[in-house]
């Protein structure tokens, strides 16, 4: 008995279901339709074999794209190979899409079935899917469907910004409208200014030049030899400038007031600005055509190629048209009139504006239009489906049309299409490599600029973050100085700072007899000698200032210490003071005995 399985694709994953009682289901289709709506009866005929959830929304989008294109994804392949029986002849797989069914049958070898009872079973699975899978609620299933639908639509609508044919359609339509408007306004300026200077109409034929001259001349009576150089610049012809000057002196036109001249000049300036904008728009159209359809524009020109794209609706639609449709594109009225009256059908439509048909003889116009339509169809398909746009193919196709024209006129046999396309392929590969190289360089430059910008931003942010710390440091510095100032007071009172390193005596000083005698006399003198020694203490104040100002080198001088200075050296020299005192006493006794 053949085992019937059903594959169901959902936004959350793939589900593989097995059906019970296959023979009864295949015979009783109306009963199946009734069982679909009832969950209990549906569970009796369908059971879930395996469920493969998608790991992320990106994986779900990839699988949805693969199913829509009729490609077996790796996740689907793994599910079917794992959970379907090994004997493929005894397995019948039901799928909803015939394309994915054909792909599964071709790659995996399982027999697939669509339509009939499979469609009813899939309808029931879609209705009761959240009850078949454990842990899946109706709300989460709806959210997954909504998210996948948005991402799938966004991926389908996504396009290359640099290859948008909508801009070409709008620009060529605006260009045609501007041509009509500029022509109408120029005729109005000619008629209006012609009352004052009628001879200018016959001398100047170009509309834009006429409007510039009307704006420049104004009142013809003020035109003189000084303005002749400016007239030559505007007309680009010295003879015409001289003719305008002569005609202004003997003109038959009526006089005009100043207010009328102001209105004519303002209107002429509007027409001139419109004509200048028309030129800039034409330049923009040429640049867009070189990006979107370079081969088509190289073959028949930017304007005719843009009109073909606009009439077809898009470059893709034009690429889908056969050459016979491209030939009469734009002549639909004449075609249907000919079909209705059983007359001759038109030979050409929009491609008539190309230079090739105008250069051909009358008997060869139909032949060259057919050949040109064929080449236009090829060029549009190359532009639509090539990854790197290049004008090599368009130039080669143009050469072929030129050779065909010369063949009609002189009988010279043109080159074969195969040889021409081989040359074009070689040149196109070189051009594509060069274009990709330029794009890579541009991308590298862009990345370098981006890195520099990010580095500058990081540096600026670090500077902004370091400024408050610097402010705190500067605020702390004066506080430290204030704390150091009171330390100078005990130095004035005779106490030394223990932190000062040079105040510690490194060697014991020896005293001579004369010094001891002088010191004894000073002791006997008492208060008389004390003020002199007090005057010597302020001399140590600069030393403390040097200590505070930094680790500056202090000149070391050998000093002779008196008895009081040795005693006042404080706790730093206790042993030295005791030894020196005992020696002094002994020497004093000896001197007193000698006396």
TrEMBL record:
It comes from the Eukaryota. One of its GO terms (biological process) is ribosome biogenesis. Residues 292-410 form the Nop domain. Part of a large pre-ribosomal ribonucleoprotein (RNP) complex, that consists of at least 62 ribosomal proteins, 45 nonribosomal proteins and both pre-rRNA and mature rRNA species. Within this complex directly interacts with TCOF1 in an RNA-independent manner. Core component of box C/D small nucleolar ribonucleoprotein (snoRNP) particles; the core proteins SNU13, NOP56, NOP58 and FBL or FBLL1 assemble stepwise onto the snoRNA. Interacts with NOP1 and NOP58. Interacts with NUFIP1, RUVBL1 and RUVBL2; RUVBL1:RUVBL2 seem to bridge the association of NOP56 with NUFIP1. GO terms for molecular function: snoRNA binding. GO terms for cellular component: box C/D methylation guide snoRNP complex; small-subunit processome. Keywords: Nucleus, Ribosome biogenesis. Involved in the early to middle stages of 60S ribosomal subunit biogenesis. Required for the biogenesis of box C/D snoRNAs such U3, U8 and U14 snoRNAs. Part of the small subunit (SSU) processome, first precursor of the small eukaryotic ribosomal subunit. During the assembly of the SSU processome in the nucleolus, many ribosome biogenesis factors, an RNA chaperone and ribosomal proteins associate with the nascent pre-rRNA and work in concert to generate RNA folding, modifications, rearrangements and cleavage as well as targeted degradation of pre-ribosomal RNA by the RNA exosome. SUPFAM superfamilies: Nop domain. The keyword Transport does not apply. This is Nucleolar protein 56. Residues 446-595 are annotated as: Disordered. Belongs to the NOP5/NOP56 family. Residues 487-503 have a biased composition (Low complexity). PROSITE patterns: NOP. Residues 581-595 have a biased composition (Basic residues). It is found in: Nucleus, Nucleolus.
């Amino acid at each position: 008995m053949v085992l019937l399985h059903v594959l169901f694709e959902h936004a959350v994953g793939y589900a593989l279901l097995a059906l019970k009682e296959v023979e009864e289901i295949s015979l009783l289709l109306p009963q199946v339709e009734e069982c679909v709506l009832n969950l209990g009866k549906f569970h009796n005929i369908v059971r879930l074999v395996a469920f493969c959830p998608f790991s992320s929304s990106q994986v779900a989008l990839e699988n949805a794209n693969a199913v829509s294109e009729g490609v077996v994804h790796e996740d689907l392949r793994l599910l079917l190979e794992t959970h379907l029986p090994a004997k493929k002849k005894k397995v019948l797989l039901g799928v909803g899409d015939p394309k994915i069914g054909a792909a599964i049958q071709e790659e995996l070898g399982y027999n697939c079935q669509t339509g009939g009872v499979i469609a009813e079973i899939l309808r029931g699975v879609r209705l009761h899917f959240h009850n078949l899978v454990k842990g899946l609620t109706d709300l989460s299933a709806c959210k997954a469907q909504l998210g996948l639908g948005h991402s799938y639509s966004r991926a389908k609508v996504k396009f290359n910004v640099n290859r948008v044919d909508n801009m070409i359609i709008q620009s060529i339509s605006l260009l045609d409208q501007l041509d009509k408007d500029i022509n109408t306004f120029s005729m109005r300026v000619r008629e209006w200014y012609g009352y004052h200077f009628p001879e200018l109409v016959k001398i100047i034929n170009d509309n834009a030049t006429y409007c510039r001259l009307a704006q420049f001349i104004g009142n013809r009576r003020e035109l003189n030899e000084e303005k002749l150089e400016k007239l030559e610049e505007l007309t680009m012809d010295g003879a015409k400038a001289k003719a305008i000057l002569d005609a202004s002196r003997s003109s038959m036109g009526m006089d005009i007031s100043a207010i009328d001249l102001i209105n004519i000049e303002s209107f002429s300036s509007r027409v001139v600005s419109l004509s200048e904008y028309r030129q800039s728009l034409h330049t923009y159209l040429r640049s867009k055509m070189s990006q979107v359809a370079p081969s088509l524009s190289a073959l028949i020109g930017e304007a005719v190629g843009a009109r073909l794209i606009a009439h077809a609706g898009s470059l893709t639609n034009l690429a889908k048209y056969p050459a016979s449709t491209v030939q009469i594109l734009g002549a639909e009225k004449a075609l249907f009139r000919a079909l209705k009256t059983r007359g001759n059908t038109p030979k050409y439509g929009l491609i008539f504006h190309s230079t090739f048909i105008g250069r051909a003889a009358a008997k060869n116009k139909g032949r060259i239009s057919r050949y040109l339509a064929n080449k236009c169809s090829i060029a549009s398909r190359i532009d639509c489906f090539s990854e790197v746009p290049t004008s090599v193919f368009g130039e080669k196709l143009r050469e072929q049309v030129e050779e065909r024209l010369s063949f009609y006129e002189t009988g010279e046999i043109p080159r074969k299409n195969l040889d021409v396309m081989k040359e074009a392929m070689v040149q196109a590969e070189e051009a594509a490599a060069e274009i990709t190289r330029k794009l890579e360089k541009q991308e590298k430059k862009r990345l370098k600029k981006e890195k520099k910008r990010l580095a500058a931003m990081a540096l600026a942010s670090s500077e902004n973050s370091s400024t408050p710390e610097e402010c705190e440091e500067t605020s702390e510095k004066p506080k430290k100085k204030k704390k150091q100032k009171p330390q100078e007071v005990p130095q004035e009172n005779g106490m030394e700072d223990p932190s000062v390193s040079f105040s510690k005596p490194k060697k014991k000083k020896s005293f001579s007899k004369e010094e001891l005698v002088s010191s004894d006399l000073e002791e006997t003198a008492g208060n008389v000698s004390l003020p002199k020694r007090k005057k010597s203490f302020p001399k140590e104040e600069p030393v403390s200032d040097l200590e505070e100002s930094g680790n500056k080198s202090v000149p070391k001088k050998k000093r002779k210490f008196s008895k009081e200075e040795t005693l006042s050296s404080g706790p730093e020299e206790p042993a030295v003071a005791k030894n020196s005192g005992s020696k002094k006493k002994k020497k004093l006794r000896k001197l007193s005995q000698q006396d």
